[in-house]
Amino acid sequence: MKNKVIALAFAAFAPVAFAQTSTTTTTATSPSSSSTTSTSESTNAVTGTTETTTSTTSTDGTVTTFEPGKTIVVRRTGVTDPISYTLGKTVEYVNKAGKTIEASMIRPGVPVHVYYSGPETTRTVTRVVVDQ
Q1: What distance in Å separates the CA atoms of residue 52 and residue 42, rounded to the nearest whole number?
Q2: Is the pLDDT of residue 14 over 80?
Q3: Could you tell me if residue 41 is inside a domain?
Q4: Which end of the chain has the lower number of beta carbons within 10 A, N or C?
């Protein structure tokens, strides 16, 4: 009887004592837009809380509208609908060689590679590479 009580007590506390965090990572690549999204979701077995993390992603395309300090709208390669991105406070503008350029070099018709983070509703640009 004593062994059954000890076994039952151990079974009741085992999930808390050996709490595990499960992690699911999903990576999706869209061939038509050259964009990659990596999302990681972690669930804590004890607290039941879920944390979702989205890493920086990128898209190739051509600038249709650019408002320095505010937004950039890019028409992706092979896709007719353009995407609007919010420019981050510390966005970096560089050329293909990686050298810093002035934001004034970005104008409609210029091919760019946009790096951003966040979900679709709040895509925030961290870096713009001008492909010319």
Answers
A1: 6
A2: no
A3: no
A4: N
